[in-house]
Design goal:
about 230 residues; three-stranded antiparallel sheet; single chain; Helix Hairpins; 8 strands; 2 domains; FAD/NAD(P)-binding domain; three-stranded parallel sheet; alpha/beta
Length: about 230
């Protein structure tokens, strides 16, 4: 959408092609709903750590209602998405094309089986999705990607996070602070994509105080009976 807006400053001959829904990854399944989940997590986390300020709460009375947490996350997320969709709908309808595009030559894309567009320049902004390894398919609907978190109707009791990158860490920490039992698994001892060894060691120490980290896991098999 940003590329489309900027391109239109220089030419009216610009098209926006989308093969799913308008609304941006950020608003639908990215930074906006994740920050709403984190806000709920921070509320509980702060409530559990008020003693140093001289504010003493009955910690046993702090209850997380998973359905209410996710209802607010989705409601606010949908409101944000609505703003984005409203903006998109104000753009010329003939410049917004729904369909899946593929290149048929250097300067031409085919959209589904009904439209061809020739252009001098193309901006590819498709985002990405994780690859689900074949040996994990047996986990069925227990295996989700981070986008799916924001379709939950309530919070789970336990979650195993595969991939201690930025998204895995922020969602894992948020779920942990909401009372979900979380364990995070990675390979090669890497955390958060950090390459500096001093910073990496500090990150491991900080996150390790709160989360169960297995940063050099050696997965061998899986089972729906033992999956977290």
């Amino acid at each position: 959408m940003g590329a489309f807006r900027n391109a239109r400053l220089h030419s009216d001959n610009v098209y926006l092609i989308e093969n799913n829904v308008f609304g941006t990854t950020c608003a639908r399944v990215g930074c906006m709903p994740s920050k709403l989940l984190i806000a709920a997590a921070e509320a509980r986390h702060h409530a559990l750590h008020t003693d140093p300020f001289g504010v003493h709460l009955d910690k046993d009375s702090i209850v997380v209602n998973g359905e209410e947490v996710m209802r607010r996350v989705k409601s606010e997320r949908d409101r944000f998405v609505g703003f984005v969709v409203t903006d998109v709908e104000e753009w010329p309808a003939d410049k917004r094309i729904m369909g899946s595009a593929k290149f048929i030559d250097e300067h031409t894309v085919q959209i589904d089986d009904h439209i061809q567009i020739a252009a001098k320049s193309f901006v590819i902004a498709t985002g990405s999705r994780p690859v689900i390894l074949p040996q994990w398919q047996s986990l069925g609907d227990r295996l989700i990607i981070n986008d799916d978190v924001f379709s939950w109707d309530t919070l789970p009791k336990r979650v195993a996070v595969f991939g201690p990158g930025v998204i895995g860490l922020e969602l894992g920490q948020a779920l942990h602070r909401l009372g979900v039992k979380v364990e995070i698994f990675g390979l090669g001892g890497i955390i958060g994509g950090i390459s500096d060894p001093v910073v990496s060691d500090e990150a491991k120490a900080v996150f390790g105080e709160e989360l169960k980290l297995h940063l050099d896991a050696k997965p061998r098999s899986n089972s729906t009976q033992t999956a977290m």
